[in-house]
Amino acid sequence: MGGDCAGAVSLFEDGTLPPKPAAYSYKSLTDDHLAKIIKELPENPFMVDEAGIRLSLAGAQEKLPVSLRDNKIRISMNGAPSSHILKTPIKDLHGTVENETFCMMLAKRMGLIVPDVKIIKINETPLYIIDRYDRKIENEQIIRLIQEDFCQALNVNSQLKYTPTLEVCFSLIRNESVVQIKDTKRFLQLVIFNGLIGNSDAHAKNISFVHGENGTTLAPFYDLLSTYVYPYAKKMAMKIGGGRHFQFLEPKHFERFAKDTPIKYKIVKETIVTMADKIVREAKDTTQEFSDLYGKNPVLKEINDVIKNSSKQKLMVFSKK
Q1: Helix (H) or strand (E) run with residue 99 in it
Q2: I want to staple 80 with a disulfide (CB 3.0 to 4.6 A). Which of 24, 33, 168, 289 is the partner?
Q3: Which of 131, 295, 285, 144 is nearest to 221 (CA)?
Q4: Is 134 assigned a catalytic role?
């Protein structure tokens, strides 16, 4: 493990030099081979038993760094960078692939910056594919970009990923981003979007920076899905004005939130009302788009119900203020 990690980091044994790009290669997978790999991921994570393959990614969900060429899945060999991440359905939870795909498509419609996503099916098993935001294509070569999640940026152990607060995250953006006003607005939109779709698992490792030639900026958003449709705790990973249940938050919570962050309450309120008013329509259109691409799935109705309830509640409480 460690040859192809998040960002531009690669790990090698002492005394071993990284392979030069000329040595990079990729192994194309047939559907049957990919199906076998997916089935064996619990016992053989990141294909560690196969020679020449050294892949690594953080997170509890089973996943695999891959690249795509002519719609064919390829595995990186000899230190070659991957371009996409493949996720498998989460065991014992219905429709996780469809859930995340839908929420990412909806986020894009809502104006959030997110990587492109799609679903492929291998032997009737749906697989989630997302473009890596920490990669770019230059002269037909995949180039690694330096990225840093908020736990890393705050020097917080990944096991304490639920510890950083929204106030700390906003402060980090203010101190690190070269476009702090733009990124502060983007992060506020993410916080509200997660609340409206019922994503309670928006912790500090699910937010990142990209360090580029022009400085540090907030990375595209990822790991967006409605956890409310599953038997998870409904408490948000990060409190908003002292509250953890988005559907019960009132203007007083957001007033307190505004005092603790660099955002004026007027901007917070306008963002909530605008997004709550827009998201139901966009979710309906996203449902149609998703159904045209991948067929109908019952989890989409559940997500739409969450969105309708949360947006209705927010519009109602703010109309009283």
Answers
A1: helix 96-109
A2: 24
A3: 131
A4: no
Same domain, 236 and 289: yes
Report the DSSP beta bridge partners of residue 210: 147, 217
Helices (H) and strands (E) in the chain, counts: 8, 11
Lateral strand order in the sheet of 146-149: 146-149, 208-212, 215-218
Torsion over CA of 157, 162, 167 and 170, rounded to 10 degrees?
70
| pTM of the predicted protein model | 0.93
Phi, psi of 111 (to 5 degrees): 95, 5
Q: Are strands 208-212 and 146-149 parallel, antiparallel or unpaired?
A: antiparallel
- With tokens 């953890």, the residue in question is 244
What is the domain extent for residue 293? Answer: 147-319
**205: nearest Cα among 146, 154, 130, 257:** 154
For residue 6, tell me if it sits in a domain: no
At how many degrees (to 10) do helices 298-319 and 96-109 cross? 40
* pLDDT tens per residue across span 22-59: 888 888 988 998 888 888 877 765 555 554 455 566 66
Spatial distance between the Cα atoms of 163 and 157, rounded to a whole number of angstroms: 10
